[in-house]
Amino acid sequence: MTAIHIQEIASIVQTGRVLTDESDRFSYSFDGSFGTYLPDIVIQTKSVEELAELVKYANREKIPVYPRGQATSLSGGPLPVKGGMVIDLSVMDDLLEIDEEDLVAVVSPGVLTAHIHKAAEAKGLMYPPDPSSSHVSTIGGNLAENSGGPRGLKYGVTKDYVIGLEMITPQGEIIRTGGRTVKNVTGYDLTKLIVGSEGTLGIITKAILRLIPKTPASETVMAVFDSLVDAGKAISQILSSGILPSKMELMDQASMVAVENYQPSGLPLDADAMILIELDGHPMAVRDEAEQVSKVCKAAGAREVRVPQTKEEQEDVWKARKLVSPAIARIKPTKISEDATVPRSKIPEMCRRLQQIKEKYRLHLVVFGHAGDGNLHPNIIADKSDKEEMLRVEQAVAEIFEAAVELGGTLSGEHGIGTMKAPFMEMELGAAGLDMMKRIKEAWDPNNIMNPGKIFPEPGQKLVLSE
Amino acid sequence: MTAIHIQEIASIVQTGRVLTDESDRFSYSFDGSFGTYLPDIVIQTKSVEELAELVKYANREKIPVYPRGQATSLSGGPLPVKGGMVIDLSVMDDLLEIDEEDLVAVVSPGVLTAHIHKAAEAKGLMYPPDPSSSHVSTIGGNLAENSGGPRGLKYGVTKDYVIGLEMITPQGEIIRTGGRTVKNVTGYDLTKLIVGSEGTLGIITKAILRLIPKTPASETVMAVFDSLVDAGKAISQILSSGILPSKMELMDQASMVAVENYQPSGLPLDADAMILIELDGHPMAVRDEAEQVSKVCKAAGAREVRVPQTKEEQEDVWKARKLVSPAIARIKPTKISEDATVPRSKIPEMCRRLQQIKEKYRLHLVVFGHAGDGNLHPNIIADKSDKEEMLRVEQAVAEIFEAAVELGGTLSGEHGIGTMKAPFMEMELGAAGLDMMKRIKEAWDPNNIMNPGKIFPEPGQKLVLSE
Question: What is the pLDDT of residues B20-74, one digit of tens each?
């Protein structure tokens, strides 16, 4: 990018800020994943029209454009890997409107997801997607990556709640997709194509989200197992007993040990696995369902089943699950969070494979996650300054992906492809499937300005963590 | 199409049938909408490989390809408007596998949707999408059109339950999208792009459908109103009271009169509107919710509220709703079924507009439909041999679309665009939005062989019903 570029960009951005100092730009060089890449310029503006002009300019001058929220991404979505222009959408946080009659929220991309939860709940409504990062991540980032979360089991993911978008195309046109109706089959579903496209198809500047009535009550069941396979069986049997829990989370022994070392919570360290089940709905229904779930867990071999009786006890149980991520981050400085997802029936087999990979590469691997929908989170804890260890991590990550795909699963359940998983795309999709995706990208963004270097592997690209 | 074409096509189809007799082809010239178009050739084969070869051949020779299920489409989806080749996928009905552990159904496109309902229920599971045609329509057709139904209010539409597809691309490649996991963010969501694309992007040859546990109980509430506006208010208030019914259906006075004339059912003919509400879930929860809903309806001005006490009484109430379509079809020979959908808050206003359109054009217009999600079904009953009347129908249909879009709604909630709504696409989407859809079509199907003449308007195309 030349000095003239910077000058012309500054002349487009009348109402916002243009950052070019190295120290400012450095703050935008990393995300929640791996690697740092310095952008040439950073833009903050609340004006959609200015953004559209910027994209038109970038398209003409072939400057890479990297939209970004709070950059909590675990897959490298916002990393400016080719330099160019970062658009900081976290400043676009003015609009958060709850319409109780239409049951929708209309939001600008910089609004924190937790603020949407709160605003909806204040009106007796609920925005179900609940990525663990919701208190720090923006809805724009959630939309770009199609974020999931524990409640995905019953309620689905971000995409299932987006019914309309305003977006800037890679040519700088402002388009609107979908609308305020839940049913809409007018033409191709651009809304659901754009959500989860990781910023490669345009910049989302507004979203219309579907809300549902808030569930009036919830109950929690905690079940401890001496065998991970039995825990897997209990999960299947609960789901086929006519009950659909709102959450069903798994913690393996290594994650319980990590939590106990971080903050003692009375977890059963000699057990192989623990599952936490949340039931939500009508107060009478959830009490009865909690009893049924307890029976199923006991029949499946649980050595202990507990139903917390107070709100405080419930919160304590869930707190242990939430502590897994910070707890394991303390073990070693580098945490590689994967989200390989397998069909539910393959959870025990996937756990076995992960165990083998852990032993084969002598790594600190912890398994926890959203077991009810097969969305496991194998996390490898390492030290990026130890090149020999990182080489083993590279190999282990590749084998995790291979195992997931071999078992009929997917590279990513909710974190996205970004940079790290791009080299493995063809393994899952096949050459023809990947080609159909590329055709959409090329048709919409022929100059490849929107988030270049993401999703699609470059020729010969390999996963490299050891540099 | 030449004799050589027909000969070469016949040589590709080794295991199936090739129909060229005019009487056979005539059976494939119409659907549940308007108009007849004779195809040149009709293919029936269960072999995906043969189909892929056929599409490769058609792409090379630029022959239009029209995939088709049972052709119950109300928007012209399967009509072979440019002649060419019809692919009768109703014969591909062999695969209907319910996997209780993964909570999925794997189906071939020719399976009737009602058979999927039955197979899932036999294993304690549920496939929620329930288009009214489910006993006669194929899942392939439901996938192509992204069919809805009354349960869309709580459970969403077809697209919300499709997690994987096998598809033949317009170049004759067989690709697989998604898989057996509910969460999958590996690349662009081709699954949700293809579902609802009305056969314009390829031929679906297999689908993986998400199932949920079957709800154990249901209750029905019937509420009669002297004012349509009060009925609309009741609908809003139920939804904001923390209850999400599985169905919430509206019948206006004209539809009640039609039903009574067709099959006397004791409907309150002097009332302005009736709403039928179904609650499903835990037995204790639905009983309590039925009481709450009854109270809300009374407070909103219902003159009568009834909760049927037996299974038989429940069925009788819902039967009246199901009779609307056949009842109005008997009034005059030509039924134009629309599915303009508006934001929930605009239902009373849309009803007012429809009343004005009815009076302005002196037409027999009946309003009923899925009021809970704003998906109304204004049906015009006419006689296509009466050209003067059909001219008025054309104008009325155009005004219905305009009203829906003006109120922030959409041309189509669940029937699709097909041929009839194509001229109105730009009104809803804008030129830039429509252009982004066209780019996908052109990138995937540069020779425009897949279901040509659908969705995208041809230059100057207008709605013509009066020819």
Answer: 999 999 999 999 888 899 999 999 999 999 999 999 999 999 999 999 999 999 8
pLDDT over threshold 80, residue B240: no
Same domain assignment for residues B302 and B318 = yes
The domain boundary, picked from A91, A123, A154, lies at A91
Nearest CB partner across the interface for B373, out of A183, A185, A201? A183
B196 three-state secondary structure: coil
Average model confidence (pLDDT) across chain B = 93
Give the domain extent around A399: 332-406
On chain B, the residues whose CB falls within 8 A of the CB of A201 are 188
Contact state of A373 with B414 under an 8 Å Cβ cutoff: no
Give B244 to chain A, closest Cα distance, Å: 6
In chain A, whose CA is at the least distance from the CA of B415?
A185
> What average pLDDT is seen over chain A?
93
Q: What is the CATH number of the domain that holds B249?
A: 3.30.70.2190
Instruction: Give A219's strand partners.
Output: A279
Choose among A176, A190, A410: nearest Cβ to B437: A190
Q: In this structure, is residue B125 part of a structural domain?
A: yes
**Cross-chain Cβ contact B182/A373 below 8 Å:** yes
Question: Would B418 be classed as within a structural domain?
Answer: no
In this complex, the residue of A180, A241, A408 whose CB is nearest that of residue B408 is: A180
Residues B130-156, mean pLDDT to the nearest whole number: 93
The CATH number covering residue A37 comes to 3.30.43.10
| Least confident interval from A174-178, A462-466, B64-68, B363-367 | A462-466
Rounded to 10°, the helix B228-239/B347-360 angle is: 150
Confidence of residue B466 (pLDDT cuts 50, 70, 90): confident
Considering the domain architecture, whether residues A261 and A362 belong to the same structural domain is answered as: no
| Confidence (pLDDT) at A259 | 94
- Give me the residues paired with residue B217 across strands: B281
Domain co-membership, B100 together with B209 = yes
Judge if A128 and A184 occupy the same domain: yes
Please judge whether B343 and A433 are an interchain contact, meaning their C-beta atoms are less than 8 angstroms apart: no
Q: How far apart are the first and last CA of chain B?
A: 26
> What average pLDDT does range A387-399 have in this prediction?
95
With a cut of 90, say whether residue B79 has pLDDT above it: yes
Q: Which residue of chain A comes nearest to B144, CA vs CA?
A: A185
Residue length, chain A?
A: 467
Q: Do A102 and B344 touch (CB under 8 A)?
A: yes
Cβ of B375 within 8 Å of Cβ of A183? The answer is yes
For residue A361, what are the CA distances in angstroms to A389, A394, A400, B461? 9, 10, 12, 64
**A180 and A277 part of one domain:** no
Residue pair A189/B158 in contact by the 8 Å Cβ criterion: no
- How many contacts (CB atoms, under 8 Å) link A and B? 279
* Residue of B142, B177, B180, B186 to mutate for A, most A C-beta atoms under 10 A: B186
Confidence of residue B232 (pLDDT cuts 50, 70, 90): confident
DSSP designation for A430: H
Residues A73 and A137 in one domain: no
**What is the domain count for chain A?**
4
CATH number, residue B377 = 3.30.70.2740
Q: Of B183, B373, B415, B419, which to mutate for an interface test with A (greatest number of A Cβ within 10 Å)?
A: B183
Domain boundary among B45, B60, B91: B91
Mean per-residue pLDDT, A152-177? 96
**What SS3 string covers B131-172?**
CCCCCCCEHHHHHHHCCCCCCHHHHCCHHHHEEEEEEECCCC
Distance from CA of B264 to the nearest CA of A (A): 32
pLDDT digits (tens, 9 = 90+) for A263-317: 998 899 999 999 999 999 989 999 999 999 999 999 999 999 999 999 999 998 8
State the Cα–Cα distance between residues A353 and A357, nearest whole angstrom: 6
CA of residue B76 relative to chain centroid, distance:
11
Q: Which chain A residues are within 8 Å of B343, Cβ to Cβ?
A: 101-102, 104, 179-181
DSSP B6: H
| A277 domain residue, yes or no | yes
Cβ contact (<8 Å) for A373 and B183?
yes
Residues B241 and B201 in one domain: no
CA distances from B361 to A220, B292, B394, B397 (A): 59, 41, 10, 10
Whether residue B213 and residue A242 make contact (CB cut-off 8 A), yes or no, is: yes
